Amino acid sequence: YEDVVDELSSRIKRIGTVYRPPIETQTDLGNVLKRRLFEEIKEDAKLSIEMEIRKYIDNYGDYVDKDLLKSFDKSYPFHPYYLELLKFLLENNTNLQNTRDAIRLSRMVIRKLWSSRPSRSLILPSDINVVDKEFRTILLQNFNEFSDAVDEIEKITKGSEIHRDLADYIFLSTYVYSLGADPKGLKAKLPDSKKIVTAVLDPVYLGKISLNPAEIKVRLTEMTEQSQDMSKVLPYLLSSDDRYWFSSFKDPLIACKIYRDK
């Protein structure tokens, strides 16, 4: 009984927050982070990466956001979607305190990247890694009903960086809505496959994993009910009309398919 009351109290607290003033624009947020976190940003590296991204857009325009480069110059070394996602979290997760937490989370991201040294030319949205205990503690405060979903992401995507990165981006883009099987009026706000594929568009990263955007979309599909391999399916990941989101409840049909195929 106490657990139920605590959960209802948590949901009421989140829903009861009617208005939070918006933080800076995405560009302003990026400027603050760059000023606080970097001593120097190399312009020649930025131009080279921009040229490589343009090639992907020209060759795989059906799979990626063709407008990505419009904000690339002002966001680098952050992927434009990193700043977009961070701003979204700051404005929709009431446990986060605007610019202060943007700097804190980004410092954590850079520290972990510096420690692991991945093959990367950009800081990606999925570098805010909800599977990581530090990020999880911060991001799931008052969202504990999603703990099982995060556990499943960690377990099922283990050993596959691209699957984890895709799942992480979808999760962080949607969990604050606390959706069930039907997103109703929020469907238009949920990421589609182009958005999700673009979220991992980093030339060095894609070169390392030897995948192009068309192949990444296949990896996305592998985690949904459309997959031919149920061992890769995330039972908390739902999709409809090319929109994707996480629920705190397992999809019963997917769960039955996974159980049947074991």
List its traits:
mainly alpha; two-stranded antiparallel sheet; 3% strand
Q: How would you describe this structure to a colleague?
A:
This protein is mainly α. The protein is built from 13 helices and two strands; from the N terminus they run ααααααααααααββα. The chain has helices at residues 2-15, 26-37, 43-59, 72-75, 80-92, 98-116, 133-139, 147-156, 161-174, 193-198, 203-209, 213-222, 252-261, and strands at residues 237-240, 243-246. It has a two-stranded antiparallel ribbon with strand order 1-2. A hairpin with a 2-residue loop joins strand 1 (237-240) and strand 2 (243-246). The protein starts with a helix and ends with a helix.
Describe the protein's topology.
Layout: H1 2-15, H2 26-37, H3 43-59, H4 72-75, H5 80-92, H6 98-116, H7 133-139, H8 147-156, H9 161-174, H10 193-198, H11 203-209, H12 213-222, E1 237-240, E2 243-246, H13 252-261
Antiparallel strand pairs: 1-2
